[in-house]
């Protein structure tokens, strides 16, 4: 097998992999969009998001106690942003 043939084979495999991944991503997107039409799914998704923010903030206090101040600040800021975004989303986009 020459170098050109090898390069062509690798290119074809890369294209096939890319098509497969894009197809799977499109299917996942459609499934999630369809699932988010149901209220319990939306509540679970928002709860997981807010709990992630709380977990980041709690991790910040643990890290600060161990002396990792930079990591603690990053976690605290990230957790605050996640919680703030959740509250802002709830305030602006709630159904009436």
Structural description of this entry:
The protein is mostly helical. It has two domains: 1-35; 39-96. 89% of the residues lie in helices and 0% in strands. The chain contains three helices and no strands. It has helices spanning 3-35, 39-65, 69-93. The longest helix has 33 residues, at 3-35. The protein is flat, with a radius of gyration of 22 Å. The chain starts with a helix and ends with a helix.
What labels describe this entry?
96 residues, mainly alpha, 2 domains, 0% strand, transmembrane
Give the arrangement of secondary structure elements.
Elements: H1 3-35, H2 39-65, H3 69-93
Transmembrane segments: 43-64, 70-93
Keywords: Membrane, Transmembrane, Transmembrane helix
Order of helices and strands: HHH
The secondary-structure class comes to mainly alpha
Overall structural domain count: 2
| Rg over C-alpha atoms, rounded to the nearest angstrom | 22 Å
Poorly predicted regions are none
Strand percentage: under 5%
Shape: flat
User: Helix proportion of residues, in percent?
Assistant: over 70%
Question: So how many helices?
Answer: 3
Number of strands: 0
Mean model confidence by pLDDT: 90
Major sheet characteristics: none
For the record, give the distance between the C-alpha atoms at the N and C termini, rounded to a whole number: 66 Å
Question: What's the gist of this structure?
Answer:
With 96 residues, the protein is an all-alpha fold. It has three helices and no strands.
């Amino acid at each position: 097998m020459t170098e050109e043939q090898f390069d062509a084979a690798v290119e074809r495999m890369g294209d096939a992999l890319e098509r497969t991944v894009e197809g799977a991503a499109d299917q996942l997107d459609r499934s999630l969009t369809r699932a988010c039409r149901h209220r319990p799914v939306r509540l679970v998704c928002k709860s997981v998001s807010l709990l992630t923010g709380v977990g980041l903030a709690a991790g910040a206090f643990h890290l600060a106690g161990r002396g990792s101040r930079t990591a603690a600040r990053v976690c605290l800021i990230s957790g605050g942003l996640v919680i703030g975004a959740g509250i802002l989303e709830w305030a602006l986009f709630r159904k009436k």
